[in-house]
Amino acid sequence: MLAEPLLLKSNVALRGQGAGTVLKAGPGFLSSEGPFGGHPLITTNGANNVTIAGLTADHSGDQLDGNTRGRLSEFLVDVRHSRNALVEGIRTQNPFTYSIAVVASSDFCVRNNQTVADSSGSYDQLDGIHITDSHGGVVEGNTVDQGQGADGDDGLVAQTIGAEVFDVVYRNNNVRGGPHGSGLQLAVGKHSIRNITVENNTFRNSPNGIQTGYYDGFAAVRDIHVVGNSFAEMPGPWLTFHGELQNINVADNLYCHTGSLRLGDGPGNKAVNNKEGC
């Protein structure tokens, strides 16, 4: 049981022995705050060369009322202002905010984790793995299920608020976006999103597949490669890109029981060899 957020120092590895190692927000957890006024269960808070691995992170959102000040200021597992951070083999449960977030960081790896959002009528904006203002990272082999309850939002996100997001790979993830979100959203503000690779992922049972969204700005989206993914059972389009686009490559994807492909015009944009089939 944690009475306050767990803050990692540089060069520290926090390793459990698997899902049976549980870090859980205790009854008085919300009386404390993280460094940025939120309620992270675990945060790196500027630490470099850190590992969080092999455990269950339980935010106790089913027992605590997480609708409090700072709910979206920090996140359940919060990698922030860090370099060379690994989040691996983490199972998150009972979130009241984003499950795993990487904020203003570089050289990160989020690998082989499981997130779930199963609450209904309690929270909003329950994203799975959310990358903000960061670069040089890999999001790989994760199982993201934001659709077990009615509160879930985007499965995967790349978002710009105060800086670009670039040089990030999303690979081999199995993703269900929640009722309020997408499988993957590129959430654009005043800073661009560029050089993003989305390859060999499975997106299923989401309202839609991959989309661009715009918040407080309309910066460019460029050099995006969406290759070799599968999309199934979604009423909306399996891909929707609009705005200032350049070099968007959508190729060799498989889609089944989905809406159409919508790719806006832009220099170097192309959609080739995408096939319908289950």
Description:
With 278 residues, the protein is mostly beta strands. Helix content is 0%, strand content 49%. It has no helices and 26 strands. The strands form two sheets. It has a 15-stranded parallel sheet that branches. Strands 2, 3, 5, 7, 9, 12, 15, 18, 21, 23 and 25 form an eleven-stranded parallel sheet that branches. The N and C termini lie far apart (45 Å). 47% of the residues are buried. The model has no long low-confidence stretch (mean pLDDT 98). Keywords: Secreted. It is found in: Secreted. Its main location: secreted. It holds the Pfam family Beta_helix. This is Right-handed parallel beta-helix repeat-containing protein.
Question: Summary?
Answer:
Residues 54-231 form the Right handed beta helix domain. The protein has strands spanning 6-7, 13-15, 22-24, 42-43, 50-58, 77-80, 83-93, 100-103, 106-111, 114-116, 129-132, 135-140, 143-145, 156-159, 165-171, 174-176, 184-188, 193-199, 202-204, 210-214, 221-227, 230-241, 245-251, 254-263, 270-272, 275-276.
Question: How many strands, what sense, and barrel or not for the largest sheet?
Answer: 15 strands, parallel
Secondary structural class: mainly beta
Average pLDDT, rounded to a whole number, is: 98
In N-to-C order, the SSE pattern is EEEEEEEEEEEEEEEEEEEEEEEEEE
Note the beta-strand portion.
over 45%
Q: Please give the alpha-carbon distance between the first and last residues.
A: 45 Å
Question: Whole-number radius of gyration?
Answer: 18 Å
Low-confidence stretches are none
How many strands appear in the DSSP assignment? Answer: 26
**Percent range of helical residues:** under 10%
> DSSP helix count?
0
Q: Assign an overall shape.
A: globular
